[in-house]
Amino acid sequence: MAGRFFDVPQRGEIREQWLATYRNGLRSLVDPSTGAPFPEADIARATQEGAPLYARAEAVELIALGIHAKAPAIADQIAPSRSTTGVLSELHAKMRDMPRLDAAGATLKAQAKADVGAVFVGSTAIPDASAAFAVDSAGRRYQALFTVTTPIGGLAGSDPAFPLVLVGVDTGEATNLPAGSKLTWGGNQPLSAAKEFTTTEDGSGGIDAETDAEWAARMEADDAHKPESGNNAHVRKWAREASNAVEDTFVYACAKYAGTKVVAVTQKRGRQTEAAPKGPLARIPSAGTLARVRAYLVPPGSPKVPERVVSVVVAPTTTYVNLSIGLTLPRGRGLGWYDVRPWPSYDSGPATITALVDQTHFTITTPSALPSGSTPHLMVWNRARTRWEELRVASVTPGGGNTFAVVLSATPTTTITTGLYVSPLARGYKLLGPAVERYFDGLGPGEVVNLTTDPRGVRAARFPDPVEVYPQRAGSTIIATLQSALVGSITSGELLAISTTTPAIPADPVSGPALLVAGHVAVYPSD
Q1: Which residues have CB under 8 Å from 140's CB, separation 6+?
Q2: Do residues 141 and 134 touch, judged by C-beta distance below 8 A?
Q3: CA quadruple 429, 434, 438, 441: dihedral positive or negative?
Q4: d(Cα 459, Cα 470) in Å, to the nearest integer?
Q5: Can you give 313-324 as a three-state secondary structure string?
Q6: Residue 471 in contact with residue 444, Cβ under 8 Å?
Q7: pTM, 2 dp
Q8: Is 2 exposed, middle or buried (0-12, 13-18, 19+ CB in 10 A)?
């Protein structure tokens, strides 16, 4: 955020300037009783605290500070990010012709029973009176996005190549229904379709109306790069105003050939709870979000882009990044390690689950020696939720060959599988998980051509530039994000291992850029 255009005086600053001016004035005068300049001692007494001149200077300052108190609030209105709601709406939005974006409806996937060959009519125009639609228990409407024919087996949406996708006609975070939610057909469904059916995945892309901060960010993006004549900034502006579900847009000019723009979209994560986080893929746009952006950007239906422009709207492809991080934390107290002798430690690799009997009996492989005299407290990283979970450890027994048999006293929420990373329990783990998520949410997609060797690199480099916003690389900068989550607890840290730092270049630009997301993560003592 840019600094203010002027300094606000501090208490005593105006008074001292006033008194200094008065002292300088007295030094240029002659004492009428002596005919000599005023002595410095007399000048000091005349302007000391409690003297009439001091009291007058104090009064002048209090009046000036009262006037200045209003100035920062008024000056803040020049920047959208500092403006009040009223000024944002009545000044900045109208000046830029940029209204607040409405709420967006979620995208749902479902399976519905019907006769083989029965057709569920869909439409990317939302709403469309001809498309099949359903309602949830609260009466919110969801429209079929694509036309689907019921395959052999009589279950529409069971073929992964032809999913039954619905998008919210009604809008808001509440349309992000969890998997297994019941829907009822409300119209235009095949006659043979069963009345009720259920969703198969959690809803994605449902978002409430644009907040002041999001609105201001769009305005300031336009201020930073003037959108005009269909340039990259113009395409970014159009894509972001296509739906409030769009977090940001990344434009690659002439990435395929001259006149073709590849437009990659990320989606807002939206609200989530600690009990139900949305995981590392929440920023990958849903089918509904992509459909809205395509309808807004791709001719001939686009209300903004002329027919001769070719725009390919894509979602980023994800690359999981596995991390091992060393942290210097207090032992046995505060938000630090639960145990005085935390186990396991990092020694040539993370501690990993390598064999599984059931959800409470498994094997960890790690070269670190097991401390004697106590049962270690452990936590496991749940990649699907980007959160750590404490394991209820009943016993840990050496098995030979750097293996340890672990028995739990309770089944964890995380599905235990081979390959999971295990860490010593940190008391502040509920703060560290969201911090890892925030770090990766701050990354943007990579490039779609090699900027060094590909002749298209001059034109096809990502806009906005990674140096400016949404860097592409992952690395040791995650330590600062973790330190901000446990302020005062993490005194230092180091990146012990990382599987990849840079998004790979796709084989074909229209496949979309790669985006780094959190994979398996572990933390270990580094002291």
Answers
A1: 168, 169, 170, 174, 175
A2: yes
A3: positive
A4: 19
A5: EECCEEEEEEEE
A6: yes
A7: 0.84
A8: exposed
Backbone angles phi, psi at 310, to 5 degrees: -105, 115
Residue 429 identity (one-letter amino acid): Y
Contacts with 274 (C-beta within 8 Å, 6 or more apart), sequence order: 387, 430, 434
pLDDT at 344 over 60: yes
Pairing of strands 421-424, 361-365: unpaired
DSSP assignment, residue 213?
Answer: H
pLDDT for 5 beyond 60: no
Q: What's the start-to-end Cα distance of the chain, in Å?
A: 36
245 neighbors 205 (Cβ within 8 angstroms): yes
Between CA 180 and CA 197 the distance in angstroms is: 9
Query: Phi-psi category of 447—alpha, beta or left, where left has phi over 0 and alpha has psi -120 to 50?
Result: beta
Using the structure block, give the residue that is written with the tokens 């990659």: 264
> What's the pLDDT tens digit per position in 193-236?
999 999 999 999 999 999 999 999 999 999 999 999 889 999 99
For the residues 432-447, what does the mean pLDDT come to? 97
Token pair listed for 342: 């935390």
pLDDT at 6: 62
Give the pLDDT score at 277. 85
- The pair of three-digit structure tokens given for residue 475, joined into one six-digit string: 């690395």
CB of 335 within 8 A of CB of 329?
Answer: yes
CB neighbour class for 410 (10 Å; exposed up to 12, middle 13-18, buried from 19): exposed
Residue whose tokens read 């005062």: 488
How many residues in total does the chain contain?
A: 527
Q: What is the DSSP letter of 212?
A: H
- Quick one: how many helices (H) and strands (E) in the chain? 11, 22
Predicted local distance difference test score (pLDDT) of residue 346? 94
Q: Which of 124, 449, 513, 459 is nearest to 298 (CA)?
A: 124
Name the H helices within 329-475.
429-441, 457-460
Domain range summary for the chain, segments of one domain joined by +? 13-76, 107-199, 225-320+436-525, 352-418
Q: Is the dihedral of CA 184, 189, 191, 193 positive or negative?
A: negative
> Residue 193: which of 120, 279, 104, 287 has the closest Cα?
120
Mean pLDDT of 307-312: 86
What is the full DSSP assignment across 25-43?
HHHTSB-TTTSSBPPHHHH
Euclidean distance between CA atoms 9 and 454, whole angstroms? 55
Structural Rg of the chain based on CA atoms: 31
C-alpha to C-alpha distance for 101 and 214, rounded to whole angstroms: 9
Q: How far apart are CA 36 and CA 32, in angstroms?
A: 8
